[in-house]
Amino acid sequence: MRILHYSLGFPPYRSGGLTKFCIDLIREQKKTGHKVFLLWPGRMSFLRKNTRIIRGKDIDGIGNLELADPLPVPFDEGISDFDSFTAEGDKSVFERFLAVLKPDVIHIHTFMGLPRSFLDAARERGIRLVFTAHDFYPICPKVTLFRNGGICGTAESCAECGQCNSTALSLKKIMLLQSPAYRALKDSAPVRALRKRHRDSYLSDAEPQGSAAPVGTAADFRALREYYAGMLSLVDMIHYNSTVTKAVYEQFFGASESKVISISHSDIRDRRRLRYYRNGRLRIRYLGSCSAAKGYYLLREALDELWRQRQDLRLDVHFEVKDPPPYLRMHPRYGYKDLEYIFDRTDVLVAPSILYETFGYTVLEALSFGVPVVISGTVGARDILADGAGIITEDNSVGSLLRALQSLDAAKLNSMNRRIVDAVSIPTAADMAETITEKVYGK
């Protein structure tokens, strides 16, 4: 099969869960004999726009196709220039491209940078179109539906979208971030420092909420959502990586042809084993960012209370904290190669996200080592959690999280660990690719 993927690009130029999923899926498809290509939004001209597709040198046997002069890519900063993000694009360019490439399936991982005319051209050629919902960008230009410490309560009306999107990058900044020069400099020390600063502040409560002038009107943002609804209507199949994601999308766009398939990545191995817990210090691991959206401050509040009741506990995090409480231990950023060491020193993983997590790789990673988990009900990875293998706190409250942590003793942890070993399925990247090819692509 000839499979064309559309995503944000190759690592290290692009990173994150979306890129990890896409590249691992492509590599597994290549292993099984499919011809695979990746089209990604690249350079933007400051003056004359000339949409074209540039064939670069293959990367690990993957066809490397840069879409030059795409629509702007807003990242997670929001949208303010509505016309630029909904421009029609040169359909004839895509017609000629698809006539030559002749893909059987086009798998779209994001609508960022992609003109609707690309989908129109593919539909006219009868090419199967698949969309994986990695985030909530078609609903929320900030991609997370998170605002003022919780899930946005005005998302349907878009009443506060203008204020939330006041952080949107200018087109000149987007052009810079899309440029070949930035690609070359992205991993330099100064740029890495700037990116780290952005990561540390992203999804925190420090976002300006009222200090910047709103952009657009509620009607503008509702029209933008309708634009993306139109793009979704052209897709033959939507792949949701969790029932959480499916429920959120269908709340805004209604039901459509879809499959829910849990995801994995290439560093996942089934390394479950029985772990023998004894009563003593409870070693809690949090692998999210230092942000309200990921539930870090919710966890801290619950642990502050638990610490008053018992001092035999420890929270391990992988970022710096000013004035840490006595129970907290800080560690450097980690990589996949560190997971075995990390989980050998972990009794329970806590993923207390307040926002909707479309999946949550850290939960799968913990389960793959047989480590019990405590997660919020908004975490999509709840789908792979067998009864008794962990605890789900449905209401995202300090009280519920505290009660869950209070219940953890040696007997409870041993029981959850045994349940993980006996009943949880650990999908690999190969399993994921085979299921997607069969159930989503239809072949």
What does this 3D model show about the protein?
It is a single chain. With 443 residues, the chain is α/β, with parallel strands linked by helices. The chain has helices spanning 17-31, 82-85, 91-101, 116-124, 161-164, 171-177, 180-185, 189-201, 218-233, 243-253, 296-309, 339-343, 361-368, 398-406, 410-423, 429-439, and strands at 2-6, 35-41, 52-59, 62-68, 105-108, 128-133, 146-147, 150-151, 237-240, 258-260, 282-285, 313-317, 328-330, 348-351, 373-376, 390-393. It has 16 helices and 16 strands. It is globular, with a radius of gyration of 22 Å. It folds into 2 domains: 2-266 and 431-439, Glycogen Phosphorylase B (Rossmann fold); 282-423, Glycogen Phosphorylase B (Rossmann fold), CATH 3.40.50.2000.
Concise synopsis of the structure shown:
By secondary structure, the protein is an alpha/beta fold. The chain contains 16 helices and 16 strands.
Features:
443 residues, alpha/beta, Rossmann fold, 6-stranded parallel β-sheet, 16 helices, 16 strands
CATH topology of the largest domain, anyone?
A: Rossmann fold
CATH superfamily of the largest domain: Glycogen Phosphorylase B
Sheet with the most strands, sense and barrel status: 8 strands, mixed
End-to-end C-alpha gap: 9 Å
The radius of gyration is: 22 Å
Which structural class do the helices and strands define?
A: alpha/beta
Question: Given the structure, what is the number of helices?
Answer: 16
The portion of residues forming beta strands comes to 15-25%
Oligomer status: single chain
- Stretches with pLDDT under 50, minimum 5 residues: 206-210
Q: Give the beta-strand count.
A: 16
- The outline comes out as globular
Please write the CATH class name of the largest domain. Answer: Alpha Beta
CATH architecture of the largest domain: 3-Layer(aba) Sandwich
The number of domains: 2
Mean pLDDT: 93
Major β-sheet strand ordering: 3-4-2-1-5-6-9-10
The share of residues in helices is 25-40%
